[in-house]
Q: What sequence folds into this?
């Protein structure tokens, strides 16, 4: 009998201390990460009242499998018992992993999870609508926006990963005629390129994709933490970088004249996006259709391309494009040279000031961070 088996026997007898000791010895003898062992260690630590150790072991389990149902349920339960409001969202993430018919032994746990998740949805809905109502009229569209974000109703369309506002024009590449300021932007291309060159003398940015180990990365596995797709952030979640102030004053001055989403703790955002030679950005979608994305190509080796939906375009120096990033899109630099693009977000032009204020209040209060 090995130590894992001895741990199971001790746990069955209610001797959780002995079980945990056996599990520690098993891990010392075989340090290869093990999801079942991490979950057992979390359960034993929790049974012994050691919440910190239990949380560490649950984290270990989620690093091994960020979508493991048991680990998510255990994490949500511990957060709930600690009075942490994040428990509701984790319950929702766990319930999304349930495959019907669910294992019978999980039925009681899942029933509690569904009840707690429903309570969190209702409480969060009321809270978000209260925040929005303080600054804007609560319209049917805004209610639908909140309900879809909380999975209380189906969104108007597929695409946005978090927020879908009904009634907005949907298009891959948007008509330039809707953005008369594009001419001013393009006229500044040479100046912005010079400021990019200046900032590149002191910084090459940081990897754009940076997910923690316990968060599902799906298609981002290859690029997670990689400098192959890096960003020099000029404005990040509404905060202007010191580097940008020093090296990109004219770019910042121009951005201040554009309809960027000013949402507390979330936006606006603007960056120089640097794509290394022979690097592919895989197909993906953005979090909300309330904003659009503008690209201003600055360094564009021939052969680089960008696809939104079923349309693929080459990047051309100084030729801006506005697109909806909630439609699947991808990019490729097949060349031997770096590609650089100025990227920033703007409000969807169909949204009036009331809609912008209401949406901004909801997003700021929800805690979901904006990502380009």
A:
């Amino acid at each position: 009998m090995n130590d894992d088996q001895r741990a199971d026997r001790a746990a069955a007898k209610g001797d959780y201390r002995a079980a945990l000791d056996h599990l520690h010895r098993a891990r010392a003898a075989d340090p290869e990460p093990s999801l079942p062992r991490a979950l057992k260690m979390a359960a034993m630590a929790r049974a012994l009242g050691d919440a910190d150790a239990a949380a560490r072991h649950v984290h270990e389990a989620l690093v091994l499998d960020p979508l493991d149902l048991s680990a998510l349920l255990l994490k949500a339960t511990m957060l709930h018992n600690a009075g942490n409001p994040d428990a509701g969202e984790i319950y929702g993430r766990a319930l999304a992993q349930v495959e019907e018919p669910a294992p019978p032994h999980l039925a009681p746990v899942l029933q509690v999870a569904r009840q707690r998740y429903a309570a969190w949805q209702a409480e969060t809905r009321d809270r978000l609508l209260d925040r929005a109502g303080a600054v804007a009229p609560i319209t049917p569209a805004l209610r639908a926006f909140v309900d879809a974000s909380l999975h209380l109703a189906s969104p108007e369309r597929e695409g946005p990963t978090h927020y879908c506002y009904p009634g907005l024009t949907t298009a891959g590449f948007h008509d330039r005629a809707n953005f008369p300021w594009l001419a001013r932007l393009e006229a500044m291309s040479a100046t912005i390129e010079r400021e990019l060159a200046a900032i590149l003398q002191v910084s090459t940015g940081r990897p754009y994709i940076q997910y923690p180990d316990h968060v599902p990365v799906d298609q981002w596995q290859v690029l997670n933490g990689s400098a192959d797709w890096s960003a020099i952030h000029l404005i990040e979640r509404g905060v202007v970088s010191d580097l940008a102030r020093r090296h990109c004053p004219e770019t910042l001055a121009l951005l201040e004249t554009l309809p960027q989403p000013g949402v507390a703790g979330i936006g606006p955002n603007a960056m120089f996006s640097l794509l290394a030679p022979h690097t592919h950005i895989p197909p993906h979608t953005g979090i909300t259709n309330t904003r659009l994305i503008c690209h201003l190509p600055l360094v564009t080796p021939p052969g680089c391309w960008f696809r939104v939906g079923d349309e693929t375009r080459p990047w051309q120096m100084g030729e801006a494009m506005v697109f909806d990033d909630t439609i699947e899109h991808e990019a490729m630099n097949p060349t031997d040279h770096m590609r650089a693009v100025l990227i920033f977000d703007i409000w969807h032009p169909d949204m009036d000031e009331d809609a912008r204020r209401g949406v901004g209040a909801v997003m700021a209060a929800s805690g979901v961070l904006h990502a380009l």
About this structure: The mean pLDDT is 93. The radius of gyration is 24 Å. The chain has 13 helices and eleven strands. The CA atoms of residues 101 and 199 lie 56 Å apart.
